[in-house]
Amino acid sequence: MGPIKMSWVAQHTAYNPPHSFEDVMLKGPFKSWHHIHKFETMPDGKVMIHDKVNYRLPMGFLGNIVAGRMIKKRLTRMFTAREIRLERDLKRHAEFSNVKRKRILIAGSSGLIGRQLVAFLDTGGHDVWRLVRRTVKPDNKEIFWSPSNGDIDSKQLEGFDTIIHLGGAGIGDKRWSKSRMKLIEESRTISTTLLSETIANLKKKPESFIVASAVGWYGERGAETLDENSTAGEGFLPDTCARWEDSCQAAKAAGIRTVHLRTGIVLDATGGALGKMLLPAKLGAGGPIGRGKQYYSWISMDDQIYATHFLVMKDDCEGVYNLTSPNPVQQKQFAKVLGKVLKRPAFIPTPPLAIWVLFGKMGVALTTESTRVVPSRLLEAGYRFEHENLEPALRDSLGVWKN
Hints:
single chain, alpha/beta, Rossmann fold, eight-stranded mixed sheet, four-stranded antiparallel sheet, globular
């Protein structure tokens, strides 16, 4: 709720598969909340989903006066988003309905992208497992590993069709001290090397190894248009990405189809770069950074998930793929469009010195360096983007649709 964060704890109950289930709020913003989900088979074979919510606001009549209209508006946005998401997900799964479902292991499943990817793959009927660094929860399809200690049970990795590695310390989470920069690199290279070498020696090797990377591989390049055939850049991020991708050599040498996902700025309102931009943008302070001419290579969360799924399911896709929209924009244009969607001014500039003071080298690198990347190989492979242009992507992410 604006700058205020709160927890919502729900209990799912009354399961009657495949007809219905319910959830009730144990802790959260409402005085009470009871949500009934019903699924009705229609004569044409399709399924109609019915959602019925009974809720009460705190403070009774006064609560309804103060927040009643706002709550109804937010609920409408929430169910609109769910409807859009469900329709899109089903269409994307239908594109590969003739391909057998896969047994998939995901490292980095608790991250911003990992959570969405696990949910999407699971609803598509795939057998999804998680590779985790904490104590394994019984009956949760989890396998323990500890990359820093070189600890992984290779026997548990036998029989997976695809292994996806999204893990690594957050690049934009903290200032870049020497120790932080070392952690950023080693959390990627050590874990990827361990996983690559382990699956290369399995009796039943996976069909594919899908590994995260980043457009940081290209470095600061001004207005130069970059695709998968472009040369590497120079500096900390390009060097880190290069070593990250080189860590997959064992899997490649073993004949495992290996894919590198060079991802741009992923648009998601719950975190990542966009999550950090929202508060200043809502306060009217989301204008140009410096002159604002640096290019941002962005991708919607929808396309990040759907493109990853596409590359998992397409057996002829191998090597490097840029996961970015076909239309990168300059930062000042990004700020202008975000301001338009939020109905806030976006002209107050932020000097790079202020970014340096607040966030150090990390902030300057991530906000002022220009990398204009296009997804040539993804388009050539036949991928169809959900969001080619920025404004519809931001409206979708923020739930602020025109109609």
